[in-house]
Amino acid sequence: MTLALEAPRFVKTLPLLRVDHVSKTYGDVQALRDVSAYAYPGEVLGIVGESGSGKSTLLRMMNLEETPDQGSYSLNLPETEGNLFDLDRFARRMLCATKIGIVYQNPHLGLLMKHSSSGNVAERLLVAGERSFATLRAKATTALEASEFPLERLDAPPIELSGGMQQRVQLAKAIALEPALLLLDEPTTGLDVSVQALVLDTLKRLQQDRQITMVIVSHDLGVIRTLADRVMVMRRGQVVETGLADQIFQDPQHAYTQQLVHAKL
Amino acid sequence: MTAVLEIDGLSKAFDLHHLGNRIAAFSKISFAVDAGEFVLLKGANGAGKSTLLRTLYRSYLPQAGQIRFQSSHGEIDLARAAEVDIAYLRRSEIGFVTQFLTARPRVSAEAIVAEPLRLAGVAADDALEQARHALDIFGVKPDLWPAYPTTFSGGEQQKVNLARALILPQRLLLLDEPTASLDAKARAALVARLAELKSQGTAMIGVFHHPDDVEHLIDRIVDLTPDHYNEEDRADVAV
Amino acid sequence: MSLSELTKPWEAMSYGFLDASAKRELRRKMIKAVAVPGCQMPYASREVPMARGWGTGGLQVSLTLVNPETTVKVIDQGADDSVNAASIRRFIARVAGAPVTMDTLQADLIQSRHRIPEEILSEDQILVLQVPNPEPLRPVQPNMSIARQMHADADYGRMWLQLYEQIVRSGRVMQGASYPSLVHGRHIMTPSPIPRWDVPKLHMAKHLTILSAGREKRIYAVPPYTRVEPLVFSDVPYRVEDHGGLTCHRSGTKGFFMNEIPQDGGTSTYEVSDSEWGVKAIRQRDGEGVIKGETWYKNGEMAQ
Questions:
Q1: Which of A88, A99, C162, C191 is the most exposed place for a label (fewest CB within 10 A)?
Q2: Model pTM greater than 0.90?
Q3: Which domains does chain C have, with CATH numbers?
C-alpha cells in the first residue's frame, strides 16, 4: 500500500473540470461505476483503458452528449454554474459550442464531410453568432493554420482529405472559439504511425502555446505518455488508478496498470 | 543552516502483481539536506540510489515515511503531497537532472532551454538570451541553437538537456548520473554550474558513477548499501 | 319542435367547399400562425378537387377566409390568366359565390404562386402564398424531428453555413427563389418560391401574409408590420435580381420583375411578370383611365 495523499496545499486554483461519482448503465451493462475525475487549468488528463472500459462514455459525458444515471459535472468557468448534467438542451448546446472543443476518432462524427474544410470550422463561429463573412473566413483560416492544416486546401471538403488532415480540420473546429476545455477521443487511432506522430506533435504544440486544458482518451499508452501530465486508468467502468504520468508509467501500483504498462514497454 | 529536505523513515518497495511478490528497494531511510549542501548517494548496484531520487521526485510512490520539504510556501511532505502540488513544485522548486533529453519535435534547442525560465515568468527575450548563454557554456555550437534537438547526437542532446535542467536556480536539485558519457568540456561546465547553484543555496542530492568529477562539491556521503549503514543516517532492514 | 326545424336542408356541399370542422381547424391554426410569426403550424390538410402540389394548401386557406363579399384575385407566377390561376379563381367563385378581380387594388384576398404583386398591398388585404416545401432547414437537416428542435432552439448556424459554402464555391450567394428569411427576429421561414425581388416586400408590410403547404400540411404567417429579414452576412449585402434596368417589350414598363423570353439568335426580351401591372400600363398608354397603385419598387429600386 502507498500513502494516502493530502488535499492540494500550494495550488489554490480550483480544477477547471470536475466529474463526481458518475454512474451509468445501458441495459444490463454498467458502463461507468462511481467514476470521478478532475483536471486543473492547463493540465492534460490522459484516460487509458481497453475498449469497453468506459473511457469514451466518460468523454462523451464531458461533452454533454450523454447524461449519467447519477453523478455531477461542473466546469469552473464564469457564467457556468452547478451540475452541467442538469442543463437543458439549449444551454448544453451553447456551452459545448463556446467552451468545449472535441476531436473524435471518427471524423464523420465531428465533420460535415461534403462541406468545405473552412466551412466546417466556420460553423462553430456561426453557432456562436458570428455573422461577418470576412471574419468567419479569417478566423477559420487562423484556426486551420494553428492546426497545421495546409491552407491551399482551405476549401476542400474533408471527404477528399487524408485521415490526418481530417483530424486537423476537427482540431481547428475544436479550437476555433478558443475553448477552455479540449476533449480528444482517440484522436490518432487508425492513422499511419508517421501521420500519428505529426498530429500528436501538433496537439503538443497547441497545448504548450495556449495552455489549454485537455482530456485525452486513448488505448494507446504512447499517445498518453506523449501528451498527458496526469493519467487515469480505467477498467470495466471503474477507475483503477490515477497518478502523475511519469509515476503511472514508472511505478504503476495496480495489477491491471502493471499489465498494461509492461505489455506496451 | 536550515534543512531544505528532511527524509524520515522513507521506505520503497515494488509490488509485482504478475509475479505475486514484492521487491524492496530501500526502507526506513532518514537523512537531511541543508540549503547549499551537496549529498552524494553511494551504494552498490541495486542499493536503490536512483530509486531514492525518483521517490523524492515522486515518480515513485513510497510506502512509508516522510519527505519534509521546505518550499518557499512552507513545509510540505512530498510523500503525501497532492499531485497538483508536486507538478507545481517540479515547475518551480525541484529539479531532476538525468542524462536523457526528452526532445520535442519542432522545438528549437534554445526554446527548450528557455522554457523553464518562460514558465517562471521571465520575459521572452531575456529567457532566450540566458538560454543561449547556457548552451554556449555547455559547448553547444551557435549554429545548433535554433535547430531541433531531435536530430542531434546523444552527446549534444545531453548538453541541451543539462543546460535546460540547470538554467533556473532550484531549491532542490536531484542529479541522476548527469556526467555519464559527457565530454571533458561539458563536464567542466556542468561542475562549474553546479558549484554556482550550490553557492546560491541549492540543495543537491546526486548519484555519480565517477564521483571524482564532483569531489570538491561533496559535503556528505550517504551510503545506501544495506549492510553498510550508519545509524545516524540510515536504519535499514535487510531485503 | 320537429327534426326538420333543427336541421338544415340537405346541400350538395358546405359553403366554400370545406366542411365546418375543417374550416374551424384552419382558422385556429391561422390564428396560431399569426401569433407566432414564421413558425410552422401543422394542420390536417384536407382533400380538395385538385392534385397535391397545385396549390391545395393555398386553396384551403382561401376557402376558409372567403365569404360572399370577398373579392378574390388568383395569380400564378405573376399571371392572372394562366390555366392554374384561372381554374382556382373559378373554383373559389363557384363554391363561395365570391366576386373575382384581376386588379390588385380591388382584391380583398389574393392567392398567389411564386410572386407578390408589384403594387403595395394595404392593411385590409390578405396575401395567401402557396408553398411546396415549408421547411427551410430541409437542405441542411434531412431529419425533420431534429429540424423542429433546431427551430425551437433558434439553432440556425447551418443556414448561414449554407450561404458561406455558396460564397466559397461560387463567389456569391446562389440561393434564388425561396430565400430563407428571419421573421420577427426569431423563426427562419421559407417565403415560398418567390424571387429574391419579392422578399423585401414582406418586411414591415401592411398586409397579412399566410403561407400554406397542402402536401406538407404546414401553415405559417407573416402578420402586418413584422420584420422579415433575408439571411445575409453583415458584410455581404442582400441582392435582388438585376431587373431594375429591364423594360417590358409589350407594355414598355420599366423597373419591375421580368420574365425572360429567349429569342432565336440567343438574345432575350423581357415581359413584366406581374401581368395585371403590364395590362394597366398598356391601357394607360392607350389612353384608358386606369388607377395604378403605389409600387414597392420605384425606378427599379426598393423604396426605403
A1: A88
A2: no
A3: 20-136+178-227 (3.40.50.11310), 243-287 (no CATH)
